[in-house]
Amino acid sequence: MTTSTTANTMTKSPPSAPQETDERVSKRGLFGTLMARPEVGAAVGAMAVFIFFAMVAPPFTTAGGISTVLYGASTIGIMVVGVSLLMIGGEFDLSTGVAVISSALVASLFSWYFATNIWVGVALALIASLGVGAINGLIFIKTKLPSFIVTLAMFLMLTGLNLALTRMIGGSVSSPPISNMDGFSSAQAIFASSVTIFGVNFRITIFYWILLVAVASFILLRTKIGNWIFAVGGDQNAARAVGVPVTATKIGLFMGVGFCAWVLGMHQLFAFSTVQSGEGIGNEFLYIIGAVIGGCLLTGGYGSAIGGALGALIFGMASRGIIYAEWNPDWFRFFLGLMLLLATIVNLMVRRRVEKK
Amino acid sequence: MSATTHEPVDGHTDDAAERSQEPDSASAAQSPLVSLESVGKRYGNIIALRDITMDVHAGQVTCVLGDNGAGKSTLIKIIAGLHQHTEGVMRVHGEETTFDSPRDALELGIATVYQDLAVVPLMPVWRNFFLGSELTTGWGPLKRLDVNAMKRIAKQELFEMGIDLRDVDQPIGTLSGGERQCVAIARAVYFGAKVLILDEPTAALGVKQSGVVLRYIMQAKQRGLGVVFITHNPHHAYPVGDRFMVLKRGRSLGYHRKEKISIDDLTAQMAGGAELQELSHELAQLGGHTAELKQVEADVAESLGRSTTR
């Protein structure tokens, strides 16, 4: 396929160059090609973490252990997908942690209060989550404030709304249980069931996670929108000058984060049938950490969905591995901090290499 | 402000003479792609540009020279659609036009390559080349980028313009400044630009890199594009230009064909020789030390001489 297309150009172009250029490409070598990928740091890190816990904690490598690790990774990873794309597009979202809970609360409180079928609440939660993303994006675009500030404000407002509305409507800090309502079992089958493969139980979020990563990778690398995401994150003004719809792209990215929050929110709701309204605070940093470990630049314009997935995997392995190794879980945060630091240093080196010349 | 009373008159008579001669010239036989007639621009009570008359012809390079704050960028922003003129008439392909946005200008084939916002450094060359006008294949949810075609075309177009890239997959930030400008120019040409506006493409570049960009400007010219080349360096403008307009304080100091002006005159006009003379005249009237001023003038002339021979 590739050879035939190059042959075509050869007939049209002046005789000398293209053939030898192809030779020069191969001289770059496998190592150089690998080093140029954004997820290289995360891949090496994931392997190191896996080998480490495989040695110190034998249950870690059993089928059950792997399933548990993947589940832990998926609950972070689903959000990391949206957050990674947003970060490649050059923006932050600090409201993601509580937005997950908001989505679950909307579905639960609405269908409980109005005694509707659960699916009505689920649909409404989707609209609310996309809406929160759109509002984040619109305020950010209209005011030209940093997304850091806009979403920090949204984080605080949602935290307050979660607590206040849950108490006002349900009369408690946790949402009323909805497990005996219409549509609960079908919603649970969709959002919080398990699939057994070769006798091992895999939570369904693992598959949603993999699907989201695949879709996000396709969008990022093989569609116009992906090109625009890289461009608005890399240099917004240059992107606008060549006709990229910067506003629509950025708002779309915030809404993508909203969608991921809905998926995860629905899982949390139907896994436990009730949600604590004060939860989710601080998780936004885990998602951002996952994206950064996965090679997304804080300044935007560079990164990958697969890298973010590897970041979430490292997170899952570390959080479960420490338990399997029977260590004090207090060590987890230290470990996370160290990974973040190492990953950021690797990213910095990559960017310097690119920009130096 | 009284310094401006003399030269604009000269500039204008020169201008008028040029325009009356145009029908004789072979290149001007076709109507200009863009023509400005007494175009001016005010920002509130500030007059950024006044009474500019110039034409952009296919296959010609029109150079706009001037120091910082002379009104060069205001002029190109009017042609590029970023700002609207407040006086005079702009005609594009013979029709009176006012652009609302850069997109309007792009649709009429007027592409602008800005010095600092040409490309996204971290993105591969081929993605930059097609940014905003990506080629796709397939349909529905499987509509995807035609990566192979885009890489091939980008490589081919750049090669034809004299940039032989090893790998169009490398981030464009790894190219030199001149090459980056050239990619931005090549893409404008590929996407059917008829008028190419280049905003100080050589300003941040070294001698060799500037040469690359100048060669590229000649390529664009030979392809039949009308090029507007904005620069403050007469040594870059003179070799490639067909017509020269020198701006100062928002006014035209003259609009010359290449045959009518030497590089020394151009440099002198740029450096403000006339203004300096004016100043000495004024000082003499006030009883100033003209001897000292003559010394200053001699120094200026000497330094100009050096720069032209360099």
Topology:
The complex is a heterodimer of chains A (357) and B (310).
Chain A: H1 2-12, H2 17-26, H3 29-35, H4 40-56, H5 63-88, H6 96-113, H7 118-143, H8 147-170, H9 184-191, E1 194-197, E2 200-203, H10 204-222, H11 224-234, H12 236-241, H13 246-272, H14 283-293, H15 305-324, H16 331-356
Antiparallel strand pairs in A: 1-2
Helix pairs in contact in A: 4-15, 5-10, 5-11, 5-13, 5-14, 5-15, 6-7, 6-8, 6-13, 7-8, 7-13, 9-13, 10-11, 11-13, 14-15, 14-16, 15-16
Chain B: H1 7-21, E1 34-43, E2 46-56, E3 61-66, H2 72-80, E4 87-92, E5 95-96, H3 102-107, E6 110-113, H4 125-130, E7 136-137, E8 144-145, H5 147-160, H6 177-190, E9 195-199, H7 207-222, E10 226-231, H8 234-240, E11 243-248, E12 251-257, H9 263-271, H10 273-285, H11 290-309
Parallel strand pairs in B: 3-10, 3-11, 6-9, 9-10
Antiparallel strand pairs in B: 1-2, 1-4, 4-5, 7-8, 11-12
Helix pairs in contact in B: 6-7, 9-11, 10-11
